[in-house]
Amino acid sequence: xxxxxxxxxxxxxxxxxxxxxxxxxxxxxxxxxxxxxxxxxxxxxxxxxxxxxxxxxxxxxxxxxxxxxxxxxxxxxxxxxxxxxxxxxxxxxxxxxxxxxxxxxxxxxxxxxxxxxxxxxxxxxxxxxxxxxxxxxxxxxxxxxxxxxxxxxxxxxxxxxxxxxxxxxxxxxxxxxxxxxxxxxxxxxxxxxxxxxxxxxxxxxxxxxxxxxxxxxxxxxxxxxxxxxxxxxxxxxxxxxxxxxxxxxxxxxxxxxxxxxxxxxxxxxxxxxxxxxxxxxxxxxxxxxxxxxxxxxxxxxxxxxxxxxxxxxxxxxxxxxxxxxxxxxxxxxxxxxxxxxxxxxxxxxxxxxxxxxxxxxxxxxxxxxxxxxxxxxxxxxxxxxxxxxxxxxxxxxxxxxxxxxxxxxxxxxxxxxxxxxxxxxxxxxxxxxxxxxxxxxxxxxxxxxxxxxxxxxxxxxxxxxxxxxxxxxxxxxxxxxxxxxxxxxxxxxxxxxxxxxxxxxxxxxxxxxxxxxxxxxxxxxxxxxxxxxxxxxxxxxxxxxxxxxxxxxxxxxxxxxxxxxxxxxxxxxxxxxxxxxxxxxxxxxxxxxxxxxxxxxxxxxxxxxxxxxxxxxxxxxxxxxxxxxxxxxxxxxxxxxxxxxxxxxxxxxxxxxxxxxxxxxxxxxxxxxxxxxxxxxxxxxxxxxxxxxxxxxxxxxxxxxxxxxxxxxxxxxxxxxxxxxxxxxxxxxxxxxxxxxxxxxxxxxxxxxxxxxxxxxxxxxxxxxxxxxxxxxxxxxxxxxxxxxxxxxxxxxx
Length: 798
Description:
alpha+beta
């Protein structure tokens, strides 16, 4: 301790004993820790002393956040899609109106093999005429009804001649479209009942959007049904008592509610979509449970060591409280990396994720210690039979201690085996193909609308959701009404016929404000290679040839031609295929910047936290191995189609474009929680004078068990997404669950102790004794501020 240390000159360094050097080096680290943890300890200390006020203040914050979201006036911010599809969206936004939804009804015999051609089938023609008549008799519901029996009807007959297509758009104002869609759908079902031998399969803009929305709602109801009971059961097993298990649930619930309220306020300036809410809930539960577990575990250890509740919470704030703050700040800064994509979709997601982590972090150093102070020893009451006593005792993990003993005896063998295993798991990721899922890829064909879209795609490629070519005047808003533009649009029919199947019928045009929207079905309405090649054909060859050099919307050219269309028009291609294409390209282009930012930031933060470049570099390598293995499993399962029966999905040959980048940022932040927690335990013992191997075994035994418990909760929470219907959620659930499981077991339990053992003294290099003496003086000043700090003999374990 400080009062036992004697004043020495730096020239006496060689003559000092090893024990003195260890003691003084530990004092330096203690001084630095006090400097970093002083604010956390003061805030937590205030909360402990004023527990009622701290608890009331926290719940007041939640109420204010919710009320603020309810009373905040004004419209919310809209997102802008990337690339050319984003330009098209901006033009339509400026019109303050949008193209009316188009619906399609496939007309074909239920038995295709023996069915006569459409033109020779009286039954198909009667059903088609009945459908057209019924639709036109629904007053003010639909407009622009087209069928194979009308003008240019051959364009609405499939290439094999066996199927017909009836198309129509919703009439009336935008707020009436939903009602009119319901009426039109009812009319289609009525006609279907009158012609049972004919298949009438409806799919289009509104029907596909509605089935996706209904699928999401159903998925979240299913997730709520499974996730809450599962989380409660695991928390009871992990914490060992009803009261202790309720604490992380309370912190996570209030954190998520407060974040939702604050996010609704920020939504007036930042675009927020439904995916943001899902991620806020997911991350809020993750960090709420993690932080509570770290805090409660340390408080139990300190009480078991003989400290009273107040002293135990003071030490917990200085140690585990610091870990929570460092981990929270690291995760928040890692999440900011998503902004480098420049995507509006990620702005709301980043804002929500940063908010929920920040709110959870603040709650962990305010209301959490206040609750623990108010409960005192009662936090361990209402124990669960059989597991309660063992879980509330805060003992070291015997299993992880045994593993650590084996690893430190042969670190090269164990570490090399673990690295080899992770590299093998990561191998499939080398062939990862980024591709967003179309509706027919995402949802099961058991859904009638999805089945209709698949059948329609086979008969009329691209018809369920065609590309939208938005044409507008640059200088003269009336330029789109010129005869030259009408002639150019009409020429698309001939160009589509000569495109070799890249572009298809039916092509239609709709005036939207002062813009013209032309629907052009592509080879596929999905996001596969055929769809992307067709999109490139439309953008780079067909439209420039039809509309002239002045129409190069993608390049923004402002040239003029002699073809009857002057430089006053421009165009851009949008639609589901175009959006996915532009989005994936933006993700691919910006991913290196996100990776570089997160890796560089993580390295700097770890160097600052542990004062060891070797440890920082080792930590990054371990995280990359863990994430790489998760990428490999994700690719092997979903892109290659393994386990499709068990997980109830059909592989479409790709991985959702945004998921790998999202996983990287989220997992890098979450893994830092586990990494800093275990590594800090090892460092404490090392700086207290223990040999490297003993420090590793003790640190892993005391920290890995907590990490494993947190990982089990997170894995269970993520695994719930596997039971959802959309393949995107299944991918996210499997990817995150596998990554957390690998990180908390193989990486933190085997690779980390092996790496620290191999690094030896390089892991935590001691400063010169002169620096140590300077640190001792700083420590003395801090100890004078808090006289109880003079009783600290060694660095407590976070």
